[in-house]
Amino acid sequence: MSTLLFESDSQRFTRCYEHAGGYHHRAKLLLNQTRSPSLVFNVAAIAVECYLIALCALFGDMPMNHNYRSLVRSIEEHLQLEEALRESILSLDAVFGICSIDDYHHGVPDEQDKVRILELCNSLDALIRREQAALAEKSR
Q1: Does the pLDDT value for residue 97 go beyond 70?
Q2: How far apart are CA 59 and CA 5, in angstroms?
Q3: How many angstroms separate the most distant Cα atoms in the chain?
Q4: What are the φ/ψ torsions at residue 65 (nearest 5 degrees)?
Q5: pLDDT for position 103
Q6: What contacts 125, CB < 8 A, 6 or more positions away?
Q7: Phi, psi of 28 (to 5 degrees)
Q8: String of b and e for 73-112 (b: at least 16 CB within 10 Å)?
Q9: Contacts (Cβ under 8 Å, ≥6 apart) of 42
Q10: Using CA atoms, how far apart are residues 69 and 117, in angstroms rounded to an integer?
């Protein structure tokens, strides 16, 4: 057990990446069980958040806000996201408008949303694997 008050970046990366993989896996299982788009989408959305926080931790960044826009901003301080990936992440705000008290809304995901968010999870997982490999190569 760590004596640190907070996790190290490495510990946070490992924890968040493992959580992301777990939620991602569970969302795929729910999809195969023909569960509702909303359930699949919401579980996969947690995976997306965990993947993004893990990516921040990989670069030693601790984002204070965990909405999608803030996480993308934090990540882009360290690497340039492909425009399609960036837009896919930011489009989640159309379903989850939960970061504003004045303009709160929670949309209802449809069949296309559940497929789209699982593709986003796959893309983020692949991005993290590439960045991990690149960082490992640099440290050699």
Answers
A1: no
A2: 20
A3: 50
A4: -115, 140
A5: 56
A6: 20, 21, 24, 51
A7: -65, -40
A8: ebbeeeeebeeeeeebbeebbebbeeeeeeeeeeeebeee
A9: 109
A10: 16
Any residues with CB less than 8 A from the CB of 83 and at least 6 apart, and which?
Answer: none
Higher pLDDT, residue 81 or 4: 81
Ramachandran bin of 69, using left for φ above 0, alpha for ψ from -120 to 50, beta for the remaining angles: alpha
For the chain, percent of residues with pLDDT exceeding 90: 61
What's this model's pTM, rounded to 2 decimal places?
A: 0.87
Sign of CA pseudo-dihedral 28, 126, 119, 103: positive
Place of tokens 């991990």: 132
Rounded CA separation 114/120 (Å) = 10
Cβ neighbours, 10 Å, residue 11: 13
What are φ and ψ of residue 15, in 5° steps? -65, -50
